[in-house]
Amino acid sequence: MIKRKILIFGGSFDPPHKIHIQILKDAIKKIKPDKTIIFPTYLSPFKKSHLLTYNERKNTIKLMIKDAKIKATINDLEYKRKKKTYTWMIVKELKKKYLNSKIYFIIGSDSLKKLKLWKKYKYLISNLIFIVAKRKGYNILKKNISSINFLTLKKTYPNLSSTQIRKEIFIGNYNNVPKHLAKLIEKKFKIKKTISKIKKLISKKRFYHTLETIKLATHLAWINGIDIKKAFFAAALHDIAKDFPLELQIKLAKKHYPNIKKLDEVIKKAPQILHQWSSATIAKKIFKIKDKSILQAISKHTTASKKMSILDKIIYVSDISSEDRTFYEAKKIRNLAIKDINKAFEVAKNTKIRYIKACKKHFYEKY
Ligand SMILES: [Fe+2]
Ligand SMILES: [Fe+2]
Predict the structure, then answer these.
(1) Where are the beta strands (DSSP E) in the chain?
(2) Which CATH superfamily is domain 190-366 in?
(3) Is the pTM value of this prediction over 0.85?
(4) For the residues of 143-168, what is the DSSP string, one character each?
(5) Check: CATH 3.40.50.150 for 4-159?
């Protein structure tokens, strides 16, 4: 009896992109499955940390596969369960539904290394045939495939990930998403509009730093379940007033920080930190930011404070360790932030204090 071929493709698809479609198309060509099923990962609708809602992701996938003439269904299993669903659960479900079948599972060569860490790994490798899509920079190592059933797609795919595309999107580059999606995202987040306004108010160097801060902050928001729109605006506007003349900065800072006595001391000793308050004022007055948590994150991004929300920490850490930062610890802090924002904040804070104490003023002036 010939077994039915079921091809499955899972992912967060936040957002779906052209490499997803290319891989799916090539896998279908190779396997010629009887059924192709796409499983978008469950991302909590209660958290605003994602770029797209489930329905937006689903509709976009639908349009993209229609455009590519791909016949596939989108499975709502994870969405209906309303919690994280492991691959083995999906496989079990499919085996029940399609009794006599072979299940093919698309996986990127970048994920092979971690396959052993997946839940019920043994169950997975004895029930799945993996379709490996080679990603640039991730060779298929013998030790990672020795115990699995697999087939390899011919091409090597560019290393374009949803994470990377999200970073591009949040700096106003919509090149890697379909037009309808770009329109939807701009309507939701007003990224391009905000960024072109910012560009007019700050120097070239500061603008570059702002874009790098946005990339890191929105990524950290995504990972930590923090409102990604808030992270975008706080990062985008954190240095907005930094290039303003000192007199104007003092005036603006006073509006956000009315403790004049303390502020006078700051003006005398460390005028470079005034911009955290003056920027908050500009965010409120010019960019019409009403949300207190965004304004707070901006107003704490250089000095920090005893009580720091996760958003405050994300902005503080992103500012100090964005890709444009060249000092020794920046990369270390950035990598740590991906794993643990609280620890990264502590390291960032201590690093800053150490530099200030050591009178490495050039560092202090930079942020
Ligand atoms: Fe900054
Ligand atoms: Fe700053």
Answers:
(1) 4-11, 35-40, 73-74, 101-108, 128-135, 149-157
(2) Hypothetical protein af1432 (1.10.3210.10)
(3) yes
(4) HHHTTSEEEEEEEEE----HHHHHHH
(5) no
Sign of CA dihedral 294, 298, 300, 302: positive
Cα(318) to centroid(ligand 1), Å: 8
Q: Hey, is 260 helix, strand or coil?
A: helix
Tell me the mean pLDDT in the region 148-161.
88
Q: Do residues 252 and 299 touch, judged by C-beta distance below 8 A?
A: no
Strands 101-108 and 73-74: unpaired
Measured from the alpha carbon of residue 210, the closest ligand is 1
Q: What kind and span of H or E run contains 262? A: helix 260-269
- Which residue carries 């379940």 as its tokens? 225
Residue 190 — pLDDT band, cuts 50, 70, 90? very high
Q: How confident is the model at residue 140 (pLDDT cuts 50, 70, 90)?
A: confident
Q: Which residues, chain by chain, have CB under 5 Å from ion ligand 1? A: 239, 319
Rounded Cα distance between 64 and 90, Å, is 23
Tokens found for residue 16: 């779906």
Could you tell me the distance, in angstroms and rounded to a whole number, from the CA of residue 264 to the centre of ligand 1? 22
Please state, in angstroms and rounded to a whole number, the distance separating the CA atoms of residues 171 and 215. Answer: 7
